[in-house]
Amino acid sequence: MIHESLETPIQGYYDAVVVGAGPAGCGAAIALGRSGMKTLILDRYNCLGGAWTTGFMNPLFDFKNKTGIVGELVSELKERNQFGGFGNMSFNYEYMKRILERKMQEANVEVLYNTTYSRTLVEQKRVYGIIAENISGRFAVMAKMIVDCTGDGNVAANAGCSFELGENGDYTACQAMTLMFLVGNIPEKYRNGLMLYEKLGAAYEKAGKQIPFKVPYLIPVPHSHFGVVQFTHMYDYDPLCAKALTEATMEGRAQIIDAFEFLKAYDEEFHDLELITSSAMLGVRESRRIIGEYYMTLDDILNGSRFHDPVARVTFNVDFHTKANKGQKCFNVKPYDIPMRALIPKGYDGIVVAGRCISGSREAMASYRVTGNCAQMGENAGYYIAKAIRDRVDIRDVRLNLVLTND
To answer: What angle is formed at CA 184 by the lines to CA 179 and CA 205, rounded to 5 degrees?
Structure first.
């Protein structure tokens, strides 16, 4: 063991600090900034958007009829002719990055890229800041509220908040990880998308190999010759282990090369396909689920539960990427709400979580984890936080009349 004694400078004091700039984090930070809160958002990558941008995640699932930032993003992308394509719900990654940056600037949100969260500052179950590091060094920021949008619940877990993982702690039950990759020179006839299994399955059979996933998709970027492939599936890796995540990423790249070479070699229509790059972010579908003041259940999503403190309206069906059949296990839900209480770690103050790491069962998470829902819950959590800070009340006591859908 190395024992250190550190003096860490405090870089600033904020109303709210958002850790993680994915869909949930962007929603939260923009809402907080628009509400007049002094807000900082930080991310380990060099852009906003997380899974949307760094992770090449298309399409934008569960965006339809949502009010607020999700609707704004779709409208602005459409205005620039950068939304549509696959299922009329895919988008251009670079435009998404820039639109999000402009919204942060307009909301007076301070943005820090290439900055890594390190640890949570907590005393008697009250979170009061975080420590982070970047090229400028190690520093602390203090805030009235920390918003954990890391996807993995890193900030909450480090504070000591309880969480669940996999099936009764067994990480091997977690859904498969995916490394998305971009391809170019897509045949004209497939520029609205293609379910790739028939072609990839045949190519793998000719190559004498077993296919790792049976529901692959080619998802073109609108009005372009390139797109993303949702295909690689890596099972049985611990999402809370850096070494396992490294190995999963390496396996993903190996799967990418196989898929690309087999498709080019054995399918005449894809003979001229070009491999551009894999995403910088590994797509982790499932890791920690923080235990909150409310726990989303299977009954909630099957029966369309409504709450007095809603932050998101979910219509996306349950979607498990299982290793048992190398495919997807899906079943329908009745449109339901997520309550703000599911975003508040049980027994803790000064911290809120947003995104797939909120409080709920594996079945519930497999429905609300998609990006449209994460962005909406992050945004509306931001409004709850802003009111709690302004009124100097416990966030659990805040009531807002939020309109979640346009219908």
So the answer is: 65
